[in-house]
Amino acid sequence: MLATPPALYRIGAVSKISGVPVPTLRIWQTRYKAFSPATSQGQHRLYNDEDLHKAALLKTLTGQGHGIRLIAGLDNAQLQQLLQTSADLGRTAQHRSTPAQAMPAPSTLAWGVVGLALAERLQSAQFQTHRTGQALPIQQIGANLEEASQWRLEAPLDVLMVSVNSLNDQAAQKLVALAERLGVRRTVVLYGFGQKNALAYLSNASCLVHRNTLDDATLAEIVQSARPAPVAHVRAWGDNNQPIPARQFSDAVLQRVANIPSQVLCECPRHVAELIGQLGRFEDYSRECLNQSPKDKDLHAQLNTMAATARALFEDALRMVATHEGISLQDLP
């Protein structure tokens, strides 16, 4: 049985060596049970080498976007494996990319904040002690929705964070209209008092809605959750970025192929024809979402591209299966 390493470090030393602020270490310990330090005779918490290593690993992983709530309970071996997996995936993605395909992501996100007190709080040194990484890249600050409506931006904001004391139907509609006009990817609303209909309206518009909080640690979690997920950039088709072919088979052809008795044990013609039909329907659906939801247009554009690419690949598969089984893929008169 391995001996427990001696507890030698007080929290200040752990902070200095690992680079994690003392308040953050305390939150990770008390709220998320990341550490179980010993206690000296003088009632000082003492940390060992394993704790020190874990603090450094948690700092790196949270900096990569992993939520502390999900990884705090892992041991060092699991955290190291997670870090290695992330590194391997990054190298694989870099190896597969070519200059024509690669689309570099911005190093920072662009934030807009409505509410002077909120903006001052987000930029304060006290709030920064509850976060890892750089300060928030706030590019626009407005005192209220009316002032924010006058913003003229060169590029869309990634996150719009709005603080309002009272939230009614009119304010909710103004807020959603502002986010759509600015092309915001993620909208976060902090409110003091809100009407039920207004809250439902914002939720239906894909806004993140929270009661305003005086707890900096909770606000830091809200900020972390507000970061939009990166949108994958997918090649349209083939090896040379060729356009995705238009749909090759009508619904009538797919239905006829699906109904033909097959000599293949896994009934490939029927399964492939059904998949093409489902992918085609989702391709149409994602295009309609693209037209109806400008707020999420990047996501729906990617979903549409992925569905169309998969549909075209399975059309090639259907040709291969049809040739094997001698099935005609021509429309019948």
> What profile does the largest beta sheet have?
5 strands, parallel
Helices, by number, come to 14
CATH topology title of the largest domain? Rossmann fold
CATH architecture of the largest domain: 3-Layer(aba) Sandwich
Q: Bin the helical content.
A: 40-55%
Count of distinct structural domains: 3
Report the C-alpha radius of gyration, rounded. 26 Å
Assembly status? single chain
Give the low-confidence spans.
96-107
Shape: flat
**Percent in strands:** 5-15%
Major sheet: order of its strands?
Answer: 4-3-5-6-7
Distance between the termini: 79 Å
Question: Tally of extended strands?
Answer: 7
Q: Average pLDDT across residues?
A: 79
CATH class of the largest domain: Alpha Beta
**CATH homologous superfamily annotation of the largest domain:** Response regulator
Can you give a write-up of this model?
- The longest helix is centred in the C-terminal third of the chain and has 29 residues.
- The strands form two sheets. A five-stranded parallel β-sheet has the order 4-3-5-6-7, with helices on both faces. Strands 1-2 form a two-stranded antiparallel sheet.
- It contains 14 helices and seven strands.
- It has three domains: 86 residues, Orthogonal Bundle (Multidrug-efflux Transporter Regulator, Chain: A, Domain 2); 116 residues, Rossmann fold, CATH 3.40.50.2300; 75 residues.
- The chain is flat and about 85 Å long.
- With 333 residues, the chain is α/β, with parallel strands linked by helices.
